[in-house]
Amino acid sequence: MLPLLAVLVVAFAALFIDAAAPATHDCVGLKGVNPRCRSKEAAYQREYFYIGGRYVPSPVFGGNLVVDQLYVEKLIPSKGVYQPYPLVFFHGGGSAGSIWLQTPDNRKGFASYFIDLGYAVYLVDQTSVGRATQNDLPGYPLRIGSTDQIAERGFSAPEIVNDYPQSQLHTQWPGTGRIGDPIFDAFVAQFIPLTSNLTRQELSMRASGCKLLSLIGRSYLISHSIGALHPILLSNDCPALVAGNINLEPTTIPFQSYLGNATSSAGRTPNRPWGLTNTRITYDPPAASSSELRTVDNETDTPALRSCIYQAEPARRLPEIAKVKYVALTGEASPHITYDQCVVNYLRQAGVKAEWIKLGEIGIRGNGHFGFLEENNGEIAKVVARWIKRADKE
After folding, report:
1. Which position among 208, 225, 235, 334 bears the catalytic label?
2. Which of 77, 86, 129, 155 has its CA 20 to 30 A from that of 263?
3. pTM of the full predicted structure?
């Protein structure tokens, strides 16, 4: 009887476990936190570090505070590294480095894709954000990261508002892309405050970013949205340590920013007086101040194609940034398809051999601003991987 009883107990336990295990749809979005939901992430070994920073006196408690440090996660494939250069990922505004780990519907994220290819992957939380929030509270004032309306209109469901004609091509967001959908709710829940003092953030990212590269060696930098500011700065400051600069929809437009995700010209505000940055970058002939950069707005502004500000000719060059290979990737249904030409053409005018890959033109259709989280994110990752392989050989 004992063997039979043991068999019955095992069988009953198996039934109980199967009944308790969530069905596939129960692991979508925030429900993926259940311990019985399987992770889609690659197998890796993880360490974390705080890079750079400096001591400053504490005005309240006495002693010293560390400020301007960069948070870095090091992810090493469990099967070992067999690619020549590491990849460093820079998140966009209102998010943190964790956004590269998985998608809001719990599919494999960009980090895992490249870990599976044998790359050492580094995820940063930029100074003032996430695990790199700063004790220098006056120096790093915060603003909100995003709202559900901004996210719907500019990221997950631009086709509903139809601010620009290309929005009607958007098909790749998982779920409805609207409040109440579990995937959208998981996406919006990750937005966190970011600093409004971009000058201070740029200065700290320049110092801590180059410090990181000096420790890990020559690397490819992969960025999204406003996170593309920092690879530009590192390409200027330590170009020998940057193997290539890969930008998934780089930050808005030279000399200006859009407010939220507005696509009308009324939604612009002056920003980045050095063209692509708020802090000084190297021009040739040199510019003693940003006011010496002569500009011109020479394009008609329409919802389908935004106008841009460029340098007046003869344009100053960007000799340090030009030493680094550069590519921008843009989804055919993103607001960025209406204005990413501004960044690419600005770089080209300044002597940078900037490449622009329009995903729709190579058969990758329907992507918005967060293409690396959308249903066909694996196809986009393959484009990035092929570009890196080609750059390795050049």
Report:
1. 225
2. 129
3. 0.92
